[in-house]
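Minutes, methods subgroup
Present: GH (chair), OT, SY

1. OT presented the first of two proteins processed in the latest run. Sequence and C-alpha cells recorded below as shown on screen.
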Amino acid sequence: MRSKSLIWILWPSFVVAGVAEGAFFSVFDPLDLYVFGGPHEWSRLAVYSTGFLAFWILCAASSALTFYLQRSPSEKRS
C-alpha cells in the first residue's frame, strides 16, 4: 500500500474519530463507564485516550474497507 493511500485512510478516520469521541463523551462521563461489568480504575485522560484510539481504529477499518472496495478489478490484481 502506498503512503498516499495510507493518508487517504488515516486522515479522514482521525477526524471522524475526534468527532465521535466528542459526541460520545458529551453524553457519557468517563468515570461512570464499566469495563467487563465492573467499575474501572483509570483516570479520565486514560479513558479519553483509549476511547479515541478505539474510535480511530474502528474508523480506519471502515475507511480501509471503503478504499479496498472502490478499486477496480485490475487495480486489485496489482
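2. SY then presented the second protein from the same run.
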Amino acid sequence: MINISPQLRWKHVFARFSEVAWFGKSIRHQVLLAIFVMLALGAFAAGATAVFNGRKAVNVEIEASMDFAEGYLRELVRRITAEGHLDQLDYLVSREVQHLRHARVYVQEPNGSSHMLQSSEAPADDSSADDDTPDWFEAIMMPKGGNEHTRRILVPGSTKSILLKGDPDDEIAEKWHELSALALVAIISIALLIAAFWFVLGRILDPLVELARGLVALQAGERLQRLTIPRVREVGDIAKKFNALAASLDHTRAENGELYRQIQTLQEEERKEIARELHDEAGPCLFGITASAESIKTLVSGLDDANDRAIEKRTEEILMITHRLKSMNRSLLKRLHPVSLGKVSLSALIADLVRDFKSLNPGTHFLSFIENCGGEYGERVDLTVYRATQEALTNALRHGRATKIVVDLKEEHLKSSSGTTCIIHLNVSDDGVGFSPETRIGYGLSAMRERVMSAGGTLSIEKHKPHGTIVSVKIPAQNIRLNSTFIETTYQASP
C-alpha cells in the first residue's frame, strides 16, 4: 500500500474540489460562488469579533457586579452587626439584596453547609432569559473563574459567613439572543444578496449565452440568425455587432452561394456532357468490339487448326477486357452523373446508391431507412441529396474505416403561418474512428457544405456515441404530397 502524506492528500482534495466546484462552470456560477465565499468569510469574521467582544463584556459585567455586590454586602453586614441583629442575618440579607444581578448570595454555617439566600434573578421589569443557550456558546463566553468565582465575607461576632458567587448565565443568554438575531439578519441578507446577484448576472450574462448560440447557428449555416438587442449597453453593443456581422456574412454567403451555384452548374454540365459522350460514343464502340469478338469466336469455334485455337483464346481475352471496360464505363457514368436522375424518385435514387456502395464494399454492413420520398423536388434538390450521401458514405469508408453505416432519409413537414414547408432530412451515421475537433475539414466536406448551403439547407457533422460520426443534412423542398409510406431496406455484409 502506498502511503500518501497529509499535505499531498489535502492538495488532492483541494484539486478535486476546484475541479467540481469551479473549473468548467459558468461565469454566473463562479461569480456567485466567489461572492458567497467572501460574504461567508466576512460574516464569520464579524461573528468571531462579536463573540470576542461579548466575552470581554460578560467578564467586565461580572467583575463589576461582583465588586458592587461585595461592597454592598460588607456595608450591610457592618450595619447588621452594629445594630445587634445577627440572629436575623439570613432574613435581613435576603431582604436587602434582591436587586443584585449576576451574583448569588449564600450563608455558610459553622458545619460547612451553605444555603442560597438570593438567586440571580432580574427585577420585575426585566424578564429572565430562557435556558436555551447552547453549551458550546456558554463554554466560549464563560469568563475567567466562571460560576466558581467566589468571594467570602466574614461576619464579625458570628460563626456564619457570607459567600458571594458570580452568575454569568443570564448575561451569556442575553448575548446569545443578540448574536442569534444578528446571525439571522446576516443569513437573510446574504441570501437576498445572492438572489439579487443571480438576477443581475442573469440579465447581464444571458445575452452572452444567446450570443454563443447565435454563433453556433451561424456556423451551422442558419443565415437568418439574429439576436435581440438587450438593454445592457455593453452587451447590446456586442449584439448589434453580431447582427451586423451576421448580415455581412449573409450577404457574402449569398454571393458565394450564387458563385458556387454557377460553378456547380458548369461542373454538372461538364459531367453530364462527359457522361453523354461516354454513353453515346464509348458505349457503342465497346458494343461493336464485343459483337466483332463474338463473331470471330463463332467463326473459329468449329476449326481444329492450332492457329484457330490461339485466335479463339485471344478473342476470349478481348471479350473479358471489353466486359471490364463496360463495367468501368457504367461506374464512371454513375459517378459523373446518375443516369436515373430526374427519372426515378429520390428514395429510389439513394437506395440504388447504397446498393452500389454495398457491392463495392462487401465487408461493411449497410442499413438504410428510406422514406418513400416520391415528390417532385427537382433535379437540383435530388442531386444535392445524392452528392451529400455519396460524400458521406465515401468518408465513412475511406477515413472512418467504418464497419456499419446507417442511412436515414425522410421528409419533415413544418407548419407555419405561411403554410407547410417540406424539409428533406438526411442522416448518415457510422461506427468508425470518428474525428477530433482539431481535424481540418477536407475539400470533399467543404464542397458538400457549400453545395447544401447553396440549396438553402444546413449541414452538421457531429460525434456519434460511443464512437463514429453523424452527418446530418436538411434541405427545404416544395412538395404537395403530405402522406408518405416508409421503406426499410437492409443490406447485410457477406461473411
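Chair's summary of item 2: The longest strand covers residues 404-416.
Next meeting: continue with the remaining queue.
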